[in-house]
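lol forgot to send this yesterday, sorry. struct tokens for the thing we talked abt
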């Protein structure tokens, strides 16, 4: 089949990525094209999902008089809706196909992007409307589950870990992009009269907060067109919800939900709450100048360390990741206890950068573990399958588990900012929330050791 015909073939009826000859002559080019369309679409999804993490820090300055807990709730709600949507999105690619589903879900992001742009221009906009728009931003969070499930079908076993790390890691860059781009675009009327009038601050300066939503619109339109005309569906990847629901009977699905909550849940939760936490704990620091660096470090470490788990084993890397994450939390707590001392901010900031870096490493390692675990488990639980059927079943279950664990972990985007807000209200500071996070990492470390890395572990990986 010619390359031109391949480009036009929307549904791939012959897809054998683990066949070396097929992969080199045809499969690799198709998989790469789908990956590099998926990445920017996912980056935009993360940008829309986390846009409130930046907007909330500016709302009081333009006349919206909300309490600290109300602001943290706005930053947290996209995590709640995004995580819930991921549960449903987890199963959509095998039902509808990756091409159609990516197109529809990317287009859905236009609703919150345009909604935010118009709502912030009216000082009379009720808090309930902002709550609704925050929930709509969860559309971006849902996209991750279907995107990862889709890309998992395209790559052979030997390259799957790295491909998933690239898709997720570069997609996660959307968190850093939104926290870098939004503070810049809200300072200028980049859309002219079309974008609306600026908000006038007390010191006479101007802001265009609406640009925090509008800036994503043209890029979303391009991504929608690219997905529709450039991506493919895989016929063998088709499966009903009933066929995929077998993962709910797999014990390791639930175990990996816990571990991935410790890594990705931390990454997305810290990303959502980091700007506002810095602003409250270190009010003398221009938090928005630094906030983007945490998600940037986490996203790049995820994209760049997938090979480490492929080489040394995902379980081993995950174990050490949780150990160092617990240590980093202790460091954060130490510097929060001496906030008035010279260098306290930079110590706090450095410990959080370490946390972001480690979440990225752990995100890659946990996703590398899932296909390895399921190849062993399917062989034990379904010994009647021949080699081809075993491979297909393990790939199908791995894709579903990758998507489902990402759904459960995404609740971190709600619980971490909300935990900060609740801790501050009842104890006067975020320390109680951070202690809970640290204890959870120790629990994750013990789980990883017991099931996956100790001598005689049930499923070594």
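and heres what i got for the seq, position by position
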């Amino acid at each position: 089949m010619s390359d031109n015909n391949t480009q036009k073939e929307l549904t791939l009826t012959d897809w054998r990525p683990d066949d070396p000859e097929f992969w080199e002559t045809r499969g690799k080019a198709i998989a790469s094209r789908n990956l590099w369309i998926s990445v920017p679409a996912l980056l935009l999804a993360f940008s829309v999902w986390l846009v409130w993490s930046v907007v909330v820090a500016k709302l009081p300055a333009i006349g919206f008089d909300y309490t600290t807990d109300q602001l943290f709730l706005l930053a947290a709600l996209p995590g709640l809706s995004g995580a819930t949507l991921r549960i449903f999105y987890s199963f959509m690619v095998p039902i509808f196909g990756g091409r159609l589903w990516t197109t529809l879900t990317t287009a859905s992001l236009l609703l919150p992007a345009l909604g935010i742009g118009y709502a912030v221009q009216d000082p009379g906009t009720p808090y309930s409307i902002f709550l609704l728009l925050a929930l709509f931003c969860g559309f971006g969070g849902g996209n991750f589950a279907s995107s990862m499930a889709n890309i998992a079908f395209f790559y052979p076993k030997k390259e799957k870990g790295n491909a998933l790390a690239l898709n997720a890691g570069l997609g996660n860059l959307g968190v850093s992009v939104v926290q870098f781009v939004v503070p810049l675009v809200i300072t200028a009327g980049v859309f002219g009269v079309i974008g609306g009038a600026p908000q006038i601050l007390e010191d006479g300066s101007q802001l265009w907060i609406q640009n925090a939503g509008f800036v994503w619109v043209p890029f979303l339109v391009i991504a929608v067109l690219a997905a529709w005309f450039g991506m493919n569906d895989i016929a063998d990847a088709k499966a009903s919800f009933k066929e995929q629901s077998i993962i709910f009977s797999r014990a390791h699905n639930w175990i990996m939900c816990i571990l991935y909550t410790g890594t990705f849940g931390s990454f997305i939760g810290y990303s959502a709450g980091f700007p506002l936490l810095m602003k409250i704990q270190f009010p003398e620091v221009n938090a928005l100048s630094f906030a983007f660096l945490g998600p940037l470090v986490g996203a790049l470490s995820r994209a760049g360390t997938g090979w480490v788990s492929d080489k040394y084993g995902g379980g081993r890397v995950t174990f050490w990741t949780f150990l160092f994450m617990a240590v980093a939390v202790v460091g954060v707590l130490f510097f929060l206890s001496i906030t008035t001392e010279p260098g306290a901010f930079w110590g706090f900031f450095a410990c959080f950068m370490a946390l972001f870096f480690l979440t990225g490493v752990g995100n890659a390692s946990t996703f590398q573990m899932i296909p390895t675990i399921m190849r062993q488990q399917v062989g034990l639980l379904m010994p009647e399958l021949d080699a081809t059927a075993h491979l297909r079943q393990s790939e199908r279950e791995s894709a579903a588990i990758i998507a489902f664990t990402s759904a459960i972990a995404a609740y971190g985007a709600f619980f971490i900012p909300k935990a900060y807000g609740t801790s501050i209200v009842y104890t006067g500071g975020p320390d109680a929330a951070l202690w809970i996070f640290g204890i959870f990492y120790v629990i994750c470390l013990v789980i990883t050791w017991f099931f996956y890395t100790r001598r005689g572990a049930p499923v070594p990986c």
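The two ends are 39 Å apart (CA to CA). anyway ping me if u want another try
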